[in-house]
Amino acid sequence: MTFNPPPILNPNRTAHDLAERLPWKNTAGESCPAYGVFRIDSFNETTLHWDAKKPDGEEGLYYANGPVPVANTKYGGAAMWNLPRRVLVDVDTLAVGDEVGPVDGEWHMSASGAGWRIMRPPETGGTVATVERVLPAHRRIQVMMKEDLLAAVDCQTDPSTAAAYVMRRKPDGDMETTDREITIVNRFQEISVDAGTYAKAEWIDGEWQLYAADCATDASFSTGDVVSE
């Protein structure tokens, strides 16, 4: 006797993991698009679902919607990260291996975020990519500053930001500057970095924070972790 398993509508899911679903309710105040990324906020003991909100830049548990939009106050189901999943992304220029993640105020993942890597890039003109969760949670990256990064006005309430190009190591061991851009956040009030400077950033509390820069040897530094390369 031949057994014919039921068809699987989503190629990223199997018959086994269809049961491994996270029931959630959209509490964002707006519709969550297909493959949109959301953060679970709390668990409802009465209805046994998680309340979900739009990404807000905070650390937390993030999941992706399926192929159908979920209106505000309506319910959806998200798959676990035990397998690669399809998510909404902001650009179609992402390549295999690029790191992306949720960003403040957006349903999509972006190179300004972190925690996932592209497995299957979006098609030209497309907005959906296949990503896989990566660990560990603490990540560092090498960059070339695209813009001047000014000192923070206040480390808690008024940091400075600037665009930077991500760098990567080539097979021959040399470094190259890519066209992938991220936003660097500087919370140091005594440190600024000029455009064209080689620097390093670390993913902390939902943002890429400056932690090292190739500054002049006579530059003055605060008592933070930023060091002269």
Highlighted features:
229 residues; mainly beta; 2 domains; five-stranded mixed β-sheet; five-stranded antiparallel β-sheet; globular; disordered N terminus
What would you note in describing this structure?
- The chain has two domains: 1-136, no CATH class; 140-228.
- Helix content is 0%, strand content 40%.
- The protein contains no helices and 16 strands.
- The strands form three sheets. The protein has a five-stranded mixed β-sheet, with no helix packed on it.
- The radius of gyration is 20 Å and the shape is globular.
Distance between the termini: 69 Å
- Which residues sit in consecutive blocks of at least 5 with pLDDT less than 50? 1-18, 219-225
Any idea how many domains?
2
**Helical percentage:** under 10%
Number of helices: 0
% residues in beta strands: 35-45%
Number of strands: 16
Shape, principal axes of CA atoms = globular
Strand order within the widest sheet? 4-2-3-1-5
Mean pLDDT across every amino acid position: 84
Which sheet architecture does the biggest sheet show? 5 strands, mixed
Helix and strand element order: EEEEEEEEEEEEEEEE
Structural class: mainly beta
Question: How big is the Rg?
Answer: 20 Å
